[in-house]
Amino acid sequence: MGSRSTQPATATTKMTLTPVMTLEYQKDSGWIRSIAYFLNGKRIISASSDKTIRKWDLQAGKEVEEVDVYEGNLAEVSRDGRWLTTTGGDGEYKLKAYGVETGIVKRFQDPRKISCFDISADGKLLASGSEIDRTVLIWGMDTDELVAGPFGSDDSVGAVQFSSDSKKLAVESSVRKCLEVWDVQTQKLDARVGKKCGGHIISVPHMFWTKKGTILAAFSFDFDNWQYSEPTTIYEFDASTLETVGDPFEGHTDIISQLALSSDGTLLASSSFDNTIKLWAFEPRHLLASFDVLPKLVHPYTLTFSPDIHQLAYAVYRKIFICNTPPDILARIRLAPHAQAIVRICCIYPIADVLISSSRSIHLTIQPSTSYSMCTLHCSIYLHY
């Protein structure tokens, strides 16, 4: 394991994360189970225990569509917002996937009691895991047929996620004390850490494959007493060995209920039963801020960043809270030591000064006295981070 000394932020005083918008279900509706942004960042989709999905327009601040789509008690929106995967009902075809925009319904012959699922980034594969028989099956989204598995996990399956290239599958146990990586093509176990502990907890947070191919997960190395040692710490694992990489993310005082990783891989958010949401710089492991969550005495059931990471959304009971990511935090992660910028400027006038702001905008001062912002007819700018 890596050393246990997460670098402190310069200021981690608890603050209240104030929503700029609240989207609310009707009083008699069910609890929100899953939310995801559409890729354009202008809409959100939510799945609820009242067996509906709802689409929300963030510019209008209201619901624009509600659809009754499933019979069961578990629903997840895919990472790109294109699919809603559900399980429940009677018969062999309990597992279904609904095209959010297309209305296409995929039915998979999986009669098990399913605890989790994930659709690959390319939209071609669906993995479904079961706490009961401790197996994972992989289905073809085009054919609705079984294409791989069963993968026999060492413990009850609580979370699954494909790698970005869909070649590997990470499997985490319900009590988050066993983590495995399987090769999808060979159907063989690559690595395992932890051991079978049995039981389950209320909420299993998402795992994430990082851009460098490692795995982020809330995990507990206390294997002797699962009932009183649910994870309060997030680790990064080498996917080939499942040895920990770098320092852990430490700071929560109660069970971590959910994780969210920004699309560019720079910002990590975690929610907990300690009624806080914490924001971390993924590298170099800085705790940037700790926010008290409202309402009190409940934990966020689901948590996600907008595609441009300028917003953080979380859901509690029947409400979705849309919050702006604090500008100073965006500035800090973009000015982190590992970030590098390459700027190429071509201009027909002599340049007196170039200023690159924390928001990545560029301001040029061109002699003798004229200032130009970004690109004009007389200059070209190429910026790459």
Report on this model:
There is one protein chain. With 385 residues, the chain is an all-beta fold. The chain folds into two domains: 14-325, YVTN repeat-like/Quinoprotein amine dehydrogenase (Methylamine Dehydrogenase, Chain H); 342-384, no CATH class. It is 2% helix and 45% strand. The protein contains one helix and 33 strands. It has one helix at 327-334; strands at 14-16, 21-24, 32-37, 43-48, 52-57, 62-68, 74-77, 83-87, 95-99, 105-108, 116-119, 125-129, 135-140, 146-152, 157-162, 168-173, 178-183, 188-194, 208-209, 215-218, 234-237, 256-261, 267-272, 276-281, 286-292, 302-305, 311-316, 319-324, 342-347, 351-356, 362-366, 370-373, 379-384. The strands form nine sheets. A five-stranded mixed beta sheet has the order 1-25-24-23-22, with helices on one face. A four-stranded antiparallel beta sheet has the order 2-28-27-26, with no helix packed on it. The longest helix has 8 residues, at 327-334. The radius of gyration is 22 Å and the shape is globular.
